[in-house]
Amino acid sequence: MITDNQMNILLVNAAFEMVTGFSQEEVRGQNPRILQSGKQDALFYTHLWNTIKTKGAWQGEIWNKRKNGDIYPELLSISSVVNDLGEITHFLGVFSDIFREKVVEKELEELTITDHLTSIGNRNSFNESLNNLINVSKQNEYKHAVLFIDLDRFKQINESIGNDGGDLILTEVANRINRIVQRKDIFARYGGDEFLLTLNNIHHQKEAAYYAKEITKLLNKPFYINSDEIYITSSIGISFYPQDGISAERLIHKADKAMYFAKQNGRNQYAFYFEELESDSKRLLLLESELRKAIQKKEFTIYYQPKVSIEKQEIIGVEALVRWQNEKLGFVSPGEFIPYAEDAGLIIPLSEVIIEKVCLDIIDWRNKGILNLLVSINIASLHFQQDDFIERINSILMQYNCSPRQLELEVTERTIMNDTEGIVEKLIKLKNMGFKLSIDDFGTGYSSLSYLNRFPLNYLKIDGSFIKQITSLKDKQAIVDCIILLAHRLHIKVVAEGVETKEQVKLLKEMDCDIIQGYYYSRPIPSKELLDFFELWEIHQKERNVL
């Protein structure tokens, strides 16, 4: 656009006509203010023209109006044209329509603050919003709670139903929690299967506890993914402003520590932050570092617990149990490092190290004349669900020249109840290869005895929590009796684990239980002591026969 020094339009080009919708004939002699949108006030234009008068030019973004009334953003440059005397004779305006650039800019801004999968806030927006809330709260005595929500064992679920199924669950999790989030609260997906919720201006811990319980209830309801019924649980950690921190970073950190405490104490629950968790946090960091090193260096020892035929009083096999003694951490309980290995994605390499260690012991026993001892190995759910599980375990056995016929694979009932058809096919292949198959910790999951006839099982292990109470609680005794009876009808032998007393042995024998395992006969012992145990057992057996 070219105007005279009185701002009367003299000339516009074809691009002007296309962008604004005005023809040259319509605007000639008019003032450019016919394009004003009203989005800029008089002060804006005063500043614009003062800049032109002092500097000879102005450039910036401005909103103008098309002939049809639509407003649009443009990048505008206005320059004054002077004659030889330095007098302004004309003004030259050059602009470009930046509507598309603005749209892209807005979309990029949305991407920086919104989680693309769930459409709720993301990590960046949560941190910024929480810090803004804290800055405002410094002027008053408001208190806030930060809830760190982590889905339990989500990696295993994701691998079993696929990434698309996992994304559907994450989206539904966000939707369910959003139902109880108030407008003043801040809710975001922090990353992966982690969500954060800030409860604004609460007064008591019980208010935060109420929301944590509600979230737990919402997430305990089944998720329906591709006609499959999926159940998940969550662990929730809670920190408070200002007592636990006065920055978003500290509050999130402490809520995270509380969440891990909830996870370590059984999952599917919530926990509040307390100071002692910091020392536990340092231990967790050291645990992960040392566990990774131990797996690489195979620094584990295998202990074996004998399994005894209750009728013949013969040792019919042993169960392999892993132990870990670390230079920095000392003895680390399997109850601590195995669940951590599952959460940290280390359970598969750890399981394969255990299988290798067992194979080495079998070779050692073979050299010492023990040829056909059946060794049972616990197989983690995530390990068993891998598509190449059979190929990998077979590769290890071939490497050490071990036969599948010497191994019994123990899987939990939760494992075999996921993807039932696929599990049955895998179990049949393993049994045809020569492996013995056992369902471990029976009674603690959610399967039914009616399903057992679908699986090619050799053994069923009744969980020790039932055995512990069979001499004191009639209902536990009835359950164990029923399990044994029905298992035998399905031609499955029953193993009672956790047997500790003579009274338990007597009662299990009356119930026709097949095999007993527990401290009554032996604690888990290292391989080098196992041969001595066998010799002593044989001696005692001969003495019993003489008597």
Automatic annotation (TrEMBL):
InterPro entries assigned: Biofilm_reg_signaling (IPR052155), EAL_dom (IPR001633), EAL_sf (IPR035919), GGDEF_dom (IPR000160), Nucleotide_cyclase (IPR029787), PAC (IPR001610), PAS (IPR000014), PAS-assoc_C (IPR000700)
Source taxon at top rank: Bacteria
SUPFAM superfamilies in UniProt: EAL domain-like, Nucleotide cyclase, PYP-like sensor domain (PAS domain)
Pfam families: EAL, GGDEF, PAS
Record domain PAC: where: 58-110
Residues of the EAL domain: 284-538
Limits of the GGDEF domain: 142-275
Residue ranges occupied by any PAS domain in the UniProt entry: 1-31
PANTHER family recorded: BIOFILM ARCHITECTURE MAINTENANCE PROTEIN MBAA, DIGUANYLATE CYCLASE DGCP
Entry-linked NCBIfam families: GGDEF, sensory_box
Protein name: EAL domain-containing protein
Species per Swiss-Prot/TrEMBL record: Psychrobacillus glaciei
